[in-house]
Amino acid sequence: MAQLSDDDFRQHFSRAKRAFHLELKDSYHVDSEAEPFRKWRAGEHDDHAWRRPWQALVREHTSAGCLIQRVRVVTVPHTLYTRWLLDIAGDNVKAGEDIRYLPRHLTTDVDLPEEDCWLFDDEHLVLTMFPGDGRVGVFVATDNSHLLRRYLAARDRVWERAMPHAEYIHSPHMNAEPIT
């Protein structure tokens, strides 16, 4: 396994026809999101400038023919963090990212791996590894073929079940009071 720099990670998009992101945690504590998340909780305005680089990357690569997909496996009722992500995901969808949600209780028969990941085409696996507190994530490339097959199988199972963002935000899963 080899840790990737942010630039090395971004290069995967240039070569891929499909980039798939699997998110398995109900909450992350990434430093760049701390202030925007605080503002959302307080009902304060956020100009979302911190999200523009990602949305530019999505627009660039989707316009070049790369599918960028994400499934968030979420616990219902949702955490406040998940509710925040649901509120802001629409702009990423407008940029070209296909974001879908799958309630965790619908995955009991899926062999979900431990770590979040990015799959580029069906060939490259990049794990997104977070310590217990979720504060700093690192990208780690692996060429472990067994692990790649496990993540590909999980991707296929969750993708077929997950609901697109626009559908999910109107689903009964949104009615439960969030976990604080």
TrEMBL record:
Q: Report domain DUF6879 positions.
A: 7-169
Domain of life of the native organism: Bacteria
Q: Which InterPro entries match?
A: DUF6879
Q: Do you know which Pfam families this protein is assigned to?
A: DUF6879
Name of this protein: DUF6879 domain-containing protein
What is the originating organism of this protein? Nonomuraea monospora
Classification of source organism: Bacteria, Bacillati, Actinomycetota, Actinomycetes, Streptosporangiales
